[in-house]
Design brief:
Number of helices of chain A: 12
Helix content of chain A: 25-40%
Order of helices and strands of chain A: EHEEHEHEEEHEHEHEHEHEHEHHEEH
Structural class of chain A: alpha/beta
CATH architecture of the largest domain in chain A: Alpha-Beta Barrel
Number of strands of chain A: 15
Distance between the termini of chain A: 48 Å
CATH class of the largest domain in chain A: Alpha Beta
Oligomer: homotetramer
Radius of gyration of chain A: 23 Å
CATH superfamily of the largest domain in chain A: Aldolase class I
Largest interface: C-D, 95 and 94 residues
Shape of chain A: elongated
Strand content of chain A: 15-25%
Chain lengths: 336, 336, 336, 336
């Protein structure tokens, strides 16, 4: 954003007015050619409108780059998924196994979690795996198992589409089609999923910027998707102390500045089940519209990602903790 | 960590027992020389003891690297700072200006925040600035202004030491000596501050790993510091959508796995005041022992970091929001 | 890799023997259960065989993780692309426009570069663009323009496949099928391209590890690709001083340790044409098997990435500089 | 940089003129207030002057941010270190042990390398180590050993200052004072070293941006340093395939755009001796003014960083390879 000054403006006063709005300002110097001074504002803030800045005394004009994701900007904070509103006052929980391993297994999970108020049953029929020799998912049959388990228990289905060729089958059965991290910029897939008309859960790429993520959402909406829900699942970092680096600043930015619905996946974000509760609570506090959590009847035998799955026997307790209010600190600071 | 198997062990059973403890396992193959199989466990978990793993049926031995930060590991979750316990049930708030700009300014802030239950008055007398031509802080006089304002209002002082030469002056007046991000691996400074005996607030370096951070804490304790409180303030990332990337996974790891006190600085973490409340609440939910927040009577005139400072007139409301319990989600998931 | 010691081994002697081979060693401590000591070797080195390490006095066994990309490991340093060997003593140059904009334009380029010894004509018919509203390439017609230009001038064609649906058309006309960075882990596309049987140029993902990159190559070879040539084009970094961060350490590792052919794309790596020559020369010095360079008859009018394209009028000079031997330093160091 | 347009300018023509100079352009839209259009140019290029851009037809003015490192910008490409010019046509080699372990050891190395045309003897008397319990260097005695070995063999001394307190002793004996990566933003140390007046070798911080690095150089020059030589030694990355990530794009940028002398340290950059030759040659090709290389009479017994040290017995061969011209590719591309 560029704020231009009138010839008789008091630059210090304009600077003051801009910083008072929480904007970081880079002052650009007067050139030899006698132009008026300019200020470049590096940080974007939805709370500040162009009209507001143009009204500052001494400002002659405000210019901005064209927003290139108009449909995403216009979407708003909620998405309706087969009658369930994501992004409203109640957090949406999306729970299930990493992979759909058998009809009995996904059914057992569904029956356990549905009574706990979990609205979405998640599970992978097609699994993106780093090695071509790792388990790739049970494919189309698993879609059927997932759908029947969800219908029998009154839940909605969220599952990933990996290949353009699978989109019709996935879109027919899924209430919410997931795009995985590795495919966030697989534009052919985004277009194919968009054409299906389904709402989409768009996971962030391993090193995607906010801008790239929003643009991928725009591909979906421009293609015909009925809504886009973003999903933060941890980005790549230099430290292997956790599996990924959960970026809750991005969640706060999406929720509070861009006013968009964002789900957080603390299972992948930390890669270890003992941090799912604190990070899940932190995500909700940061503004997440819900959580995606992996569970398994017997994690050690899981065909993928066992160490981060919550044992099914513990899922009731975990959901209870995630929903518990964070204790209100007393008013005397750290004084003992 | 390496788990060795007995010659007659059932590897699948051992694998199962390890994953059931939430450990990620890399199986290492049998070599030509006829050795028993081994399992390498990549992830560290405080919840799993060597004794526990050694007791698994089929395991012949468990070997681990020597912990090289024994004093940090032994410290425990609380540090007493001049009678104020950091890391207990009540979050510690550390509030004040980025730079101590004048005696009147810091006194005005102190008088406003002390009644709000803020235990620590923060403020920079010595400021590390990227440019040698930027304001470098008022130095020793500012230490006195800070101390008198804190004493008059019953707060403790936390302020940064930048130079070995300044350590005696800082340590005499500060209750808690801060090491800034740029100096996290300035070992000469860590040794000098350690020798002062004061408890220390150790900010994480811009791209420090957890392991390096813990080792820097060890320098302080080995040197004589009475306690180390860690401070996450955002790390460097590839995305400039926020000023830094607040790593709340590291906070959860320190708090819940390493059982160490960690303060979070959402002012630097996001660099924009409109995200301080959601990220501050998220930090507390993740396990932070407290928050460090910048405030200023008139942010646009601040000598440093104005855009991220909370206007003093709003600090009461911000602290109230940070302390408010996060609303308890109702039990029917995202259903409308 | 784990090196186990005999009960009577001298650990210091074994350590010495390992470090003398250039290996970084983490010593793992003896456990309570009376096991022999172990050494974990973190760094991999192709120059060190398991047999060699097992022969060290005092070593009872050496165990390693199973290599999960056996086909990539077995491929070797050269790939034959329609009769042109990539990875031999002569660097392969792949030159052409970012997008194939018209038949006349690509033909003009081909006629200019073919006499310069450029073996491959590059050009995008399908373009992955961050925004859905940016130019997406001329598609199938552009494939024909590219092919005819290459055939008329005796060059081979390298062009990108973006969608599974386009693979048959691309594979029919391209001598070398390119997988772009955003699709490095688009496994459905990798499988489809593998099935075509063509050799593949696999660009590295924006934040792909060496291990992930090799595994994606394995997908291609397991699927049927006749060979994989890797392509480093810069990774994501925290600094925007250059468009991307060209990782020539990865190039040296692929070329000298893994013995695989790797092409470097300095146009994307730096994003500015004034660094293409120094970085192209550096890439060849690091072990690159060739270079991919963008050119355009009139960069300012290019439909994509103009600022990094070499003007066609300068391509002769640029190729001459890239091929010029780096001047031999004289022997008296920096003495003037 | 902001380029403003005249009211009657043809924006497409101006855009064309800017891109033809290799600049990436972000077009900023006209605002409601009737201001003329602007163009923001994101990339900096020394090859393009403000005057040149202002002369483009249709441009009414060009404004830029004030350069905040004027002394660094004014320094130029060479620094004289006790009579040895760094940055001239002949590469400067800085060779020696990681730590100065004994007078005999450093003397043996000096006698071996001096006849090979190595101008600088390097070696650490004070060592920054992640753990407080690791070997910290022999300190002041080691400075004397280093100095005598250099004087006896006609070399110059480069060694690191770690603490403000050690600066006088280091500056008295060193011809070139090194600032290590961990201290690149230790401003108290930069000021102290600057005051000594010595030329300085400034290693880049683990995640320092180009801008921060240049500003740290400005601290040195503003403080009184006689010259600053930059040193790239690898930055932090997400991949542990190499110890650090050597950023030769930054080297090319410093050498060819900023016209500053930069030394490359491939020993730390890769962390493995088998990549030192290819990366050292690549560094020279990218524009490095010289190389810093670690050697040791017996690497397995080195007190620090043995695996990356070149055995002294091989240093003659390594230097010969580093100086050898890179073979000139023949003109028929990759054709076999």
């Amino acid at each position: 954003m560029i704020v231009s000054l009138k010839a008789d403006a008091n630059p210090a006063e304009v600077l003051r007015a801009l910083v008072s709005r929480g904007l970081w300002v880079t002052q650009v110097e007067k050139s030899a050619s006698g132009e008026p001074r300019h200020y470049v504002i590096a940080s974007y803030s939805a709370a500040t409108s162009v009209e507001d800045l143009a009204s500052i005394d001494g400002v002659s004009g405000v210019t901005t780059s064209k927003v290139e994701h108009p449909r995403v900007s216009a979407q708003g904070p909620t998405v309706d998924v087969s009658g369930v509103v994501v992004g409203g006052v109640k957090p949406a929980f999306m729970v299930g196994p990493c992979s759909v391993e058998s009809e009995a297994h996904v059914r057992e999970i569904a029956e356990r979690i549905a009574p706990l108020g979990v609205a979405f049953l998640r599970g992978g029929a097609y699994k993106p795996r780093t090695s071509p020799y790792a388990f790739q998912g049970h494919g189309e049959p698993a879609l059927g198992w997932l759908k029947r388990a969800a219908e029998a228990t009154g839940m909605k289905v969220v599952t990933e589409a990996l290949s353009e060729a699978d989109v019709p089958a996935v879109a027919e059965l899924a209430d919410l089609v997931q795009i995985g991290s590795r495919n966030m910029q697989n534009y052919a897939l985004l277009k194919a999923v968009g054409r299906s008309g389904r709402p989409v859960l768009l996971k962030r790429g391993m090193s995607a910027t906010m801008d790239e993520w929003l643009h991928s959402g725009e591909y979906l909406l421009a293609g015909g998707a009925r809504g886009v829900i973003f999903c933060e699942r941890g980005i790549r970092s230099f430290d292997d102390a956790t599996r990924n680096l959960l970026d809750l600043g991005a969640v706060a930015l999406l929720a509070h500045v861009h006013k968009l619905p964002v789900i957080v996946d603390p299972s992948h974000g930390a890669g270890r089940r003992d941090l799912i509760v604190p990070l899940g609570r932190a995500a909700l506090a940061a503004g997440a519209a819900g959580l995606m959590i992996e569970t398994h009847a017997d994690p050690p035998t899981a065909l993928s990602d066992g160490p981060q799955a919550i044992p099914l026997a513990e899922i009731t307790a975990v959901l209870r903790e995630l929903r518990a209010a964070i204790p209100r600190p007393t008013s005397n600071g750290g004084a003992s």
